[in-house]
Every structure is written in structure tokens, then in C-alpha cells.
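Materials and Methods. Structural model of Spore photoproduct lyase. The 397-residue sequence of Spore photoproduct lyase from Desulfonatronum thiosulfatophilum was retrieved and submitted for structure prediction as follows.
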Amino acid sequence: MLRPNEQKNIDILRYIKMHNQVYAPNSSLPALPEHLRKLERIWVDKSVLHTAMTQRVLAGVGHLPVEIVDQEQRPKDYDHELGILYLKHYKGRFLRSCPGTSHYHCCGYRIVHIGENCPLSCSYCILQAYFQDRVLKVWANQEDLFGELERAFGEHPQRRLRLGTGEFTDSLTLEPLTGYSRDLVAFLSDYPQVCLELKSKVVNLSWMDQARRPDRVLPAWSMNAPHIQAGEERGSATLEERLQAARYCARSGFRVCLHFDPVIPCNDWEQGYARTVEMIADYLRPEQVAYISLGSLRFMPELKSRIMTNHPSSNYIYAEFITGLDGKQRLLRPLRVRQLRHVAHMLRRAGFEGLYLCMESDEVWQDVLECTPRKLGGLARYLMARVFGAEFSAVTE
Ligand code: SF4
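The predicted structure was written out as C-alpha cells:
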């Protein structure tokens, strides 16, 4: 029988192995994980050439050609696919409300905008249609981002906020090069009124030692049926790897979040999602999970042709969809409800709570979870309470 410390050491060794997958074309450079080995070149806006972020990234990919870009001129090859990493001077707002959708219940979290696009290649990825191009962009003027956050938190020091970076990119896929989440976790340690969710489909725990308050960071992983992960989420970590990481976080004092989004209308979906819930129950205890979202496949109409072109074997796109009140394509309600109810039922039977639906109506909430956001006191408030617990007495939104 291993003592707790011995078990912890074995876990740490396993994670060192998982993070430092061996790839070093030039042995003096740090190893890159598989999903970053397709990078071909780096673009840098002249104005961010000397920032700490740029210097850090260039130190990690010194073997790739680097082009200095005049940010007012669109670089040639801009439509080139995912092999370009663009370190950009971002001039927009870094802190935003989640775009959500009209007519349906939104969870009310705030986005910290750190960049755009993602080096993974999930067939259903909304970003294929959301942005004009697929160039990987990282906002390298981090000081502006931290300045904006400082001002926002300073204006309302009592206001509790749930923040996340996983809306316009994956929170952690670029972490081995950028260390963005690690910087953000360190910065936010001075703001206990804020909780940061790091949502990902890869395993990277390098931000962990910066978290002075584990209760203010929520590592989050997307969940799907095992055959969807294997076939439709190219480049991602397996479910086992994600859940091992989640368990490691939970054992280190963090609570984790899980996102079944999108639930896909695929063959054998009942068995597939049931298997995933079994795996979750093998790795995590219910009290280690802050919340679990469930969302049915939904997309802007233009995404369908992108999926057909980019991922021709993704047959789920030929299921029957209708146009929802927000203009997005959604599965016919009876199948949507059946799928979501099945996953919710399995999770509840295994003892998991904190379930909520992403972008659904009261009627679907009632059919799936037998309650409505109103009965929970409002979805945003409910999730705040799940995150901040008894400390969350007065929301000053
Ligand atoms: S991990 Fe998320 S952001 Fe990245 S390709 Fe998949 S769905 Fe898109």
C-alpha cells in the first residue's frame, strides 16, 4: 500500500511524462506537445516584439521562421491554415460578457480574451465559422490586458465574477509556448473576488503552482462519448488523460468542472455517453465537481458547409436540425431532450449535482432537469453560489 506522498509522487511523474512529450528538433529547445508540432512560422506585430510574451514564445520556437508584421497591413497568406502563430497587439476589450444567445438561458460568465483560434481540429468547432481565418492569434500586449482587469476589478471590488478564457480559443493548448494561463492565475491571485475557469481538451497543469487559492481556479475539461473524442476531436487528450488530470487537480484541492458540450447525435450515443459517465465516476467524487454543463449540438448555419468540407466523414451533420429562435441550427427538440435527459440521468444516478443546460429554454430545462433556472434563483446566481459557496451572499451584478 502506497503512502499518500508516494502516490502523489507517482502522479507527478506521470504528469511530467504527459506534459513533456519528447520532441526537440533542436535539443536546446523545450519539447513541444504533439498538437503544436504543426506550427510552421511565427508572425509578430512590430509593437509587441519586445514584450515578455513574445520573447517567451520565440524562445520556445526558435527553430521556426519569424516574420515581423506591420499590424495595419494584413499579412499575405492570412488565410493560410493553422500553421501560423501570430503574436498580436490587441486593441479591443479584453474583458467581455459571454456572447451567449438571445431567447435562451445563458450562464453569465465573463470572458478574458487572450487570443483566437485553436491548434486542435474538432470537427464541430464553432470557431471554423466564427472567425474569418484560422490563424492562431495570441494577444502579446499582456500589460494592457492586466491593466484593464485591474481597473475593472478596482471599480467594483465587492463584485464576484466568474471568468474564463475558453470561449474564443482553448484555455491551455498554447500554454507550453505562451504560459498565458499561468500568468493569469498568478495575476488573479490578488483578486479573491474572482474565480477563473480554465477550459480545455488537453492536459497541461503548469499553471497550478501559481494558484495561491485553489478555490479560485476551476480546471475544466470537455467530455464527450469516447468514440466522439477519438473520431471528432483530433489532437485532443483522451478522456482518460483528461480525467486523470481532473483527479490530480481534485486531490490537490481544486474543484473541477465538466462540460458535455456538444452532445452529438451519433450512432451508439446512449452507450457512448453512459460509458463516459462511468469513467467520470471512476475518477471523481461528486463533491470534487463544481458544476457540469450539458449542451446539445447547435451552430450557425454557415458552419454546416465548413464541417462538410473540412471533415467529410462527420456524418452527424446530416441529422435533422431546425432553426432556433436565435437563428442557430439545433436538433429537433424530442431528440435533443432525449439525449440530454439520458446524460443528466446517468450523472445524477452516479451522485453528481450542479448540472445545468447551455442555451436552452425553460421547457427543455423542465423536460431534462425537472426544474428551471428561475427555481434555482437564476442560472448565473446558481453557478456563482456553486463556485463561491457560503461567501456568495449578495451579488452586486
Ligand atoms: S478544443 Fe475547442 S476551440 Fe479547440 S478546436 Fe476543439 S472545439 Fe475548437
